[in-house]
Amino acid sequence: MSSPARRDFLRCLSALAVASVGVPARSQPSRPLRFTALGQAAIQTDLRDHPYAGFDALAKYLARSDICFTDLETPISGPASEAPTIKTVFAKGAPPEVLDCLKLLSVNVLALSNNHAWDFGTGGVLATLDAVKRAGFTCAGTGANLAEASMAGYRDTAAGRVALVSMASGAIRAGAAATETRAGVNEVRRDASGELDADDRARNLMAIRAARMNAAYVFCYQHNHYWEKDFRVTPAWQQKWARECIDAGACAYVSHGAPLLHGIEIYRGCPIFYDLGSFVFHTKTTVGYYPGEVWDSAIADCVFEEGRLVALDLVPVVLNENGIAPDLFHETRGRPTIAEGTDAERILARLQKLSAGLDISRTGAIGRVVLS
């Protein structure tokens, strides 16, 4: 590691240690915590602009959550936003109104670390961070410097204080990663041997441990683009890393990146969601560009008590690949609806197949993980 990079690392560790002392004492849980994890939100227009059947039922279901979490996979436009850094159909960007839409769906915690965070440059990273905080969300994964991007975001609930540590791996373009002097993403890189960079790994494990000192529950998020040749396959390195995050004090690990479902693991009484696919998927790609599985997702409805998972329901979600009309095609595709019938059966069967060793029973259109 170069001297400047080593200096960034050491100063970041020092800042994390100081920050852990500066957080007020955590509140004591008074009851179990309901944590709901969604697929990633590649939301670029307000879903309420074009009402559709299924939105209200989704909002009603999610309203039961103490914490409703997703990854905001789009920058929010603002005065500080810079010129687009990507000019293809994969570029993302959204007005602040999409945040109001997510709030109506009870989303209150956002990961900001992903490969699209820098689509409006460094100014766009800061504009998004400002908009999200002003809207009242708890967030993590980006910051004005590496220390801030690595730190947990905290939210107090009646069930105790919750912390989020958020990171991103792969497809983070030059200039997008946070440094000691530059705003950006909390990046976790892989080295030439395919292992996680030792300093990135140590920094994020310390962030989890620091958060655990100040919160009853710590959730770890990773946006991953270090895919296998077949992006349906969960990388072995990611499985190892997710367990390390749990060992460090996280009560759950959630990931997105490949836009489709991967398996679920229960490790030491804590859930690992290797990929929950997409919750909203506004994309300008052509119909058929992605395989059919991309338009299937799931809501992970978790109940925790004293840091351990005590219940887990899986609610299948289906997204529409086609828009409603030529002039509204991109704005009205990739919208979520709670799945029923054969759609629900297909999604739950896929999750069962992907989640070796997990027993998923079914109650109607909802799957319940049998916990030992």
Could you walk me through the main structural features you see in this protein, from its secondary elements to its overall organization?
The protein has 372 residues and is of the alpha/beta class. The protein has a single domain, classed as Metallo-dependent phosphatases (Purple Acid Phosphatase, chain A, domain 2, 4-Layer Sandwich). It has eight helices and 19 strands. The strands form four sheets. Strands 1, 3, 4, 5, 15, 16, 17, 18 and 19 form a nine-stranded mixed β-sheet that branches. The relative contact order is 0.14. The mean pLDDT is 94.
Indicate the proportion of strand residues: 25-35%
Enumerate how many helices there are, as a single number: 8
The structural class is: alpha/beta
Give the termini distance in whole angstroms: 44 Å
Low-confidence stretches: none
Q: Which radius of gyration do the C-alpha atoms yield? A: 19 Å
Could you give the order of the helices and strands? HEEHEHEHEEHEEEHEHEEEEEEEHEE
Largest sheet: 9 strands, mixed
The chain-level mean pLDDT equals 94
Number of domains: 1
- CATH architecture assignment name: 4-Layer Sandwich
Could you name the CATH topology? Purple Acid Phosphatase, chain A, domain 2
Helix percent reads 25-40%
Shape: globular
Provide the CATH superfamily: Metallo-dependent phosphatases
